[in-house]
Structures are given as C-alpha cells and as structure tokens.
Design brief:
ten-stranded mixed β-sheet, pseudouridine synthase activity, RNA binding, two-stranded antiparallel sheet, 248 residues, 30% strand, mainly beta, single chain, PsdUridine_synth_cat_dom_sf, RluA_PseudoU_synthase, Pseudouridine synthase, globular
C-alpha cells in the first residue's frame, strides 16, 4: 500500500515571521497565516517556518507546529538540549496554550449570549484513514480530546469585510452574528479546535477542512490564532508567559 501524500500546494506567503521573544537558547515567533510550519515533500512546498528560520538560525528546530492557516505563537529551540527539555514539557502537557478564534453564529451559554462565560468540549478524535490528512470523531476508538472555551465577544459578521471573497452563488445574511472565543485545549490532537467547533455547531470561520457550509467563505483566512503560551524556561526554570493578540 502506497503512503498517502497530501496533494496540497501552498500559495506564496508574503508575510514575514516576527520574533516575539529571543535569547541564546530559544525563540518565540509569530507565524503568519498561510505558511507551513515544516517544508512539505513537494518541491513547491519548500517555504515554511523552519526553512525561513534556519537561514538566520542554522540550529533552529521546531518544538511544535501550527496548521497552515493558523497564525500565532510558536516556540523554537536553538540547541539540542533545549529541544529535548521543551519537547518533554509538551509531551507531559505542562505547556499551557491559548487560542483566539472567530466562530460562525452566536455560541449561546445556557440559551443566552453571555460574554465571559464558557464551557468544555470533550469529543474523542481519530485519524480519518479514508480522507488523509483529515481527522474525525470516533466515540469507540478515538483519542481523548478536551477543549475549554470562554466567550470574548459577539460581533456582526460584516465586521470582517469578507464580501470580496464570497461566491456569487452563495447567499446568506451578512449581518449574522459571530462569536469570538478564547480556547484552552487540554489535549493536543491534530485539528482539535476545528473539529470541536464544528461539533458544537459553530465552525471556525475560514476553515477549509471541516465546514461544508458557508463559514469557509466568510473570511480570507482561517480565523484561528495561537495567542498565549505558558511554559518553563528550559535553562533558568523561570515561568515564561508570552502573549500576542489576534490580528482579527
């Protein structure tokens, strides 16, 4: 059986990586939306966070990844010892991660719009063997996936000015409500926040993988941003709390 290869070809990304924190041991960078974390097998997918970083930091290695469409904070090790220590923190789930997202529709709490309130989503996820590289929900054999969320605000859809990206064949209420949320994933499954958002009836706007409706067309990008990382510095042991507001 031949291994499955993602046929996706990334369009050129003109946005640059910015460094949010830097010392001799590590970087925390801001990944732009529309850039691969690691170079793909296809020669047209060479451009990536890692490929760009090693031009200036030859020993740089990524500790974790963000999806192609997700923007925000990533930790980069600058030597093998730091890489090992940071990878252990991720494997032990001692790194706290927060994401900001825009969801389609009004996410109600106890039947009402309630800013500052939230809940928890506990829906197991497994690889979709028939639809690489997608994941799917499976109550029988899926791996535990838990996401906590809190409502930040409710906003009018037209605040994102995405009309120029809409298909002329689609029609919907441009004044519909969207919900900005803060996610705290307690597990790190692939596409976890995308799937959990869809499963509660409010897909992330701009999601091209898990929304068969109109949410994908409502923004020029995936409206998901890694906004905060809390971890222990691998050398000093001090707590690192790095924050970066979403660009939306």
């Amino acid at each position: 059986m031949q291994p499955q290869v993602d046929p996706f070809i990334a369009p050129p990304c003109v946005e640059q990586i910015s460094i949010v924190y830097q010392d001799e041991h590590l970087l925390v960078i801001n990944k732009p939306s529309g850039l691969l974390s690691l170079s793909g097998k296809h020669p047209l997918n060479k451009d990536s966070v890692h490929w760009r970083l090693v031009q200036d930091f030859p020993t740089a290695t990524l500790i974790h990844r963000l999806d192609f469409g997700t923007s925000g904070l990533m930790i980069v090790a600058l030597n093998k010892a730091v890489n090992k220590q940071l990878c252990e923190q991720f494997s032990q789930r001692s790194v706290t991660k927060y994401y900001q997202a825009i969801l389609d529709g009004a996410l109600l709490i106890n039947g009402q719009q309630q800013v500052g309130q939230g809940g928890e989503i506990n829906i197991p996820i497994i690889k979709d063997a028939d639809n690489f590289p997608l994941q799917k929900v499976c109550q029988q054999t899926g791996k535990t996936a838990i996401s906590q969320y809190q409502v930040i605000s409710y906003d009018a859809y037209d605040a994102y000015d995405a009309s120029c990206f809409l298909s002329s064949e689609l029609s919907f209420n441009s004044d519909s409500i969207t919900t900005k949320v803060l996610f705290k994933p307690l597990t790190g499954r692939t596409h976890q926040l995308r799937i959990h958002s869809r499963e509660i009836g409010h897909p992330i706007i701009g999601c091209d993988l898990y929304d068969a409706g109109q949410s994908y067309f409502k923004a020029p990008r995936l409206m998901l941003h890694a906004s905060r990382l809390i971890f222990s510095h691998p050398v000093s042991g001090s707590e690192m709390d790095v924050q970066l507001a979403a660009p939306f």
